[in-house]
Design brief:
- The chain has eight helices and ten strands.
- By secondary structure, it is an alpha/beta fold.
- It folds into two domains: 172 residues, Rossmann fold (3-Layer(aba) Sandwich), CATH 3.40.50.300; 67 residues.
- A six-stranded mixed β-sheet has the order 6-7-8-3-9-10, sandwiched between helices. A four-stranded antiparallel β-sheet has the order 2-1-4-5, covered by helices on one side.
- The longest helix is centred in the last third of the chain and has 18 residues.
- The termini are far apart.
- The N terminus is likely disordered.
- The protein binds adenosine-5'-triphosphate.
- The site of adenosine-5'-triphosphate has 10 residues, from α1.
- Adenosine-5'-triphosphate (ATP) binds next to α1.
Length: 248
């Protein structure tokens, strides 16, 4: 495991990264993400946002190029060896394990937990508003609570990179706001570098300093969220947002 001081985010560099699914379109990603930045990954459906996150997390391996995290080449490492946590839209939890056990997996895959681990689990559950729900199974939680359990696990893993793939897509607007606040709190506490794929520019505006815009398997624009939202960063982004407004 790459050593990174707790409480600090890692720099991420994607160097001439190439990838294609069997029979799929070639994709190529090039980017540098500053330590502790919070980056919205936006772009049309099928443009490659999830693939980009999977390449950083290690669920997919590039055919050429490198993923560097704090200068270390992690391109060939499996996901559990990378200094990264990932939260998906759903199915982040093991259905047969309790809330506390699901969080405990952030410390030990075999759930052999020390007293210190147990204290960290209780703290994380309190911080994410889940105190008293330790012994429930995921099926007895709401969608928002399940996502908070996933974030409690992120909290105790203390990895310097957090990747989120449309983490609020199945939540209503009030819960979305609550989750955005919680993620902002976690970032204030740990300063991890965050990349979040989202289709909603309001998520980006509320949480993310920066944005990358993905189109047809490439990052076609990068900049501050403010520049994107004010329409100055990318004509393609403006067209994408305009088209989404017509759909909604
Ligand atoms: N496991 C896979 N095998 C083959 N092709 C895939 C696989 N996963 C994704 N693809 C294809 O790769 C392309 C990029 O998909 P990806 O899921 O990265 O897009 P996305 O931008 O995250 O889309 P969305 O916003 O709909 O989630 C799409 O054409 C998709 O159909």
């Amino acid at each position: 495991m790459i050593k990174t001081a707790a409480g600090h985010g890692a720099k991420i560099a994607l160097e001439a990264l190439q990838f294609a699914y069997p029979g799929g379109r070639p994709m190529a990603f090039e980017a540098t993400i500053a330590p502790s930045d919070i980056v919205a990954v936006m772009g049309p459906s099928g443009s490659g946002k999830s693939t980009l996150l999977s390449l950083i997390a290690g669920f997919e391996k590039p055919t050429a190029g490198r993923v560097l995290i704090n200068g270390e080449d992690v391109s060939r490492l499996n996901p559990h060896r990378r200094p990264v946590s990932m939260v998906f839209q759903e199915n982040n939890l093991f259905a047969h394990l309790t809330v506390a056990q699901n969080v405990g997996l952030g410390r030990s895959a075999s759930l052999r937990l020390s007293d210190e681990d147990r204290t960290a689990i209780s703290d994380a559950l309190a911080r994410t508003g889940l105190a008293g729900k330790e012994d429930r199974l995921p099926q007895a939680l709401s969608g928002g609570e399940r996502q908070r359990v996933a974030l409690a696990r992120v909290l105790i893993r203390r990895r310097p990179v957090l990747l989120m793939d449309e983490p609020f897509a199945s939540l209503g607007p009030a819960l979305r706001d609550e989750m955005l606040e919680l993620i902002a709190d976690l970032h204030a506490a740990q300063g991890m570098t965050i990349l979040m794929a989202t289709h909603d520019p309001r998520d980006a505006e509320r949480l993310c300093k920066s944005m990358v815009f993905v189109e047809e398997g490439q990052i076609s624009a990068t900049g501050t969220t403010d520049a994107f939202i004010s329409g100055e960063a990318s004509d393609a982004f403006n067209r994408y947002i305009g088209a989404r407004r017509e759909i909604n």
